[in-house]
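Following up on my earlier thread - several people asked me to post the actual chain instead of describing it. Fair enough. Here it is, all 109 residues.
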Amino acid sequence: MRPWIYLGVAIVSEVFATTFLKQSEGFSRLVPTLASLAGYGLALYCLSRAVQDIELGIAYAIWAGLGTALIVLLGWLVFRQSIDLAAIIGVLMIVGGVVVINAFSELEA
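Reply from S.P.:
Thanks for posting it. Predicted structure:
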């Protein structure tokens, strides 16, 4: 169970860091820049711990897929960025791919 917790923290940390990356305005604002760097550091540390027990491809697919979906959702909800039908379908395909990998792959998770 512990590697999945690490993976969950890695996903949340990466989403946190990416959100502050936008607010850092090209690393020109100190606090959002530090928050972004700290979030990415924690995300990579937790991902490195997760892949000790979860197959690298599986862990990365979950990390990247769910992170992407959450960032698109936050961009829409928090930053009022527009999202069209093609983007929604693309994100659903990414999440669907993660589900297929986890449900049907014979790789050890």
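The chain has a mean pLDDT of 91. That should answer part of your original question.
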